[in-house]
Amino acid sequence: MRLQMNAAELMGYLEEVFPQVHGDFAVDALEAEQIVMRLKVQEKHLRPGGTVSGPSMFGLADCAAYAMILSRIGRQALAVTTSSSMDFMRKPAAGADLIGSCRLLKLGRALAVCDILLHSEGQDGAVARATMTYSIPPKRGD
Amino acid sequence: MRLQMNAAELMGYLEEVFPQVHGDFAVDALEAEQIVMRLKVQEKHLRPGGTVSGPSMFGLADCAAYAMILSRIGRQALAVTTSSSMDFMRKPAAGADLIGSCRLLKLGRALAVCDILLHSEGQDGAVARATMTYSIPPKRGD
Amino acid sequence: MRLQMNAAELMGYLEEVFPQVHGDFAVDALEAEQIVMRLKVQEKHLRPGGTVSGPSMFGLADCAAYAMILSRIGRQALAVTTSSSMDFMRKPAAGADLIGSCRLLKLGRALAVCDILLHSEGQDGAVARATMTYSIPPKRGD
Amino acid sequence: MRLQMNAAELMGYLEEVFPQVHGDFAVDALEAEQIVMRLKVQEKHLRPGGTVSGPSMFGLADCAAYAMILSRIGRQALAVTTSSSMDFMRKPAAGADLIGSCRLLKLGRALAVCDILLHSEGQDGAVARATMTYSIPPKRGD
């Protein structure tokens, strides 16, 4: 039940293994069973009308789950998403960051499950919910 | 943001519209945005080995969401499930009731979304999570 | 890419490991990457109004996926459902069996994925679709 | 059961309402109940190691479903995704386009459901499957 990395170490590792996401994401808070991750919304994340696109919301949910899992299992970049489900409930606010609040529901030897609520910063009501299931590669020697 | 029925009225209405479920379910707690529903686990709900079956877990999650929504919109039996997702995370305990803790994430004019965590009574760690989306029929005169 | 059991052997094994389902399900067709399974709809599977209940639809989809996977990996009753998603699209016909047409999309060492379309016999248009993900236990000696 | 736009009209309309996607997607084939859509994979769609990113796969599945639905209901840009589920099954090939084969499972007055299989061009075995549910806005006068 112990974090293997703190928020700063985690961000450093994410930027090392996912250089493309540099500048897109930040860790707002990290605990043993939850993480709050922020999508710094920019022009490239938007749909016409100014709302955040579906793929950007998927990306935030997936990144929050990945970061949550890595913070617990340590530097194992090869954890991969196997299943996801999302429900889109409200229109994201224009001009606001998107906040993903992620809970770790299961961390098994082979599979981990997280659920994530997405909010527009400063707005009531979740814009979306997601579940992400990750497969964790066996450690050498297992 | 108001309940249209309290827990006793809700159970009475459920037993009227779903006579088959009589004796299977009970409302443990009801608030404006959450409900706790219990599956009184019996022989018919079990798989070999004594664990609760997948269809029984689905049934509890679906009934909790239905009850949550009816408690808010009133006697509209025709609300129907349109989508569901579930993740099965731990083996339910043998000989324990299953408790479904349901949150109402969205209650729109046409669609409602609930998520549900399922626990075996007296056991740590959720056995499953579910999301249920319901379609709400338009009121006459709409 | 070879079946380990034919349809009759598969039904015999299912009835041995799931005695409760005896009389509920039948294998209509079995090939290397698909199975057609039938729910012999009875009073206990119905909702008021005569339509097949959600848990019964879930049960058919889950059983079809389980049977598909066992037909390929052989007698390994411990394969367990890890994730499912379902969409409910039309009302099942009253008084008709429900037919589940299941495709095996992936059969890996640790995870298998099936999707399933459910039809009421003799009716056009799927009543539901489902995806079932199974975790396959490592073989002894792995 | 009639298309309201052919493939060229559909691409023209998509580029008008989603200018950001210009150059990313193409319609390979369009029929009354299915569409094949291509993601022209570029540097921005990739993860380290050269595989297509999760958000890019989500984007292709979502765009294929949106295009399928618009081809049937006509120019109604306001159709919105309400639910999605995805399973990620194989690693997409490096340096190959991603092909989304989409089936329209339901087109109701208020909701439409599509499922999508994603393949890397020239590679056997689906890399992912997805279901997308869309809410269709009521027509004026409804």
- Please state how the strands of the largest beta sheet of chain A are arranged side by side: 1-2-4-5-6-3
Name of the top-level CATH class of chain A = Alpha Beta
Number of helices of chain A: 2
SSE sequence of chain A, one letter per element: HEEHEEEE
- Portion of residues in beta strands of chain A equals 25-35%
Helix content of chain A: 10-25%
* CA radius of gyration of chain A: 15 Å
Give the N-terminus to C-terminus distance of chain A in angstroms: 20 Å
SS content category of chain A: alpha+beta
Largest sheet descriptor of chain A? 6 strands, antiparallel
CATH architecture call of chain A: Roll
> What fold name stands as the CATH topology of chain A?
Thiol Ester Dehydrase, Chain A
Mean pLDDT of chain A: 92
**Overall spatial form of chain A:** globular
Q: What is the assigned CATH homologous superfamily of chain A?
A: Hotdog Thioesterase
Largest interface: A-D, 24 and 24 residues
- Contiguous low-pLDDT stretches of chain A (5 residues minimum) are none
Q: What is the strand tally of chain A? A: 6
Q: Quaternary arrangement of the chains shown?
A: homotetramer
Total discrete domains of chain A = 1
Would you write up a description of this structure?
Four copies of one chain form a homotetramer. Chain A has helices spanning 7-17, 54-73, and strands at 25-30, 34-39, 80-88, 98-107, 111-120, 128-135. The first copy, chain A, is an alpha+beta fold. Chain A has one domain: Roll (Thiol Ester Dehydrase, Chain A), CATH 3.10.129. In chain A, a hairpin with a 3-residue loop joins strand 4 and strand 5. Chains in contact: A-B, A-C, A-D, B-C, B-D, C-D. At the A-D interface, helix 2 and strand 3 of A face helix 2 and strand 3 of D.
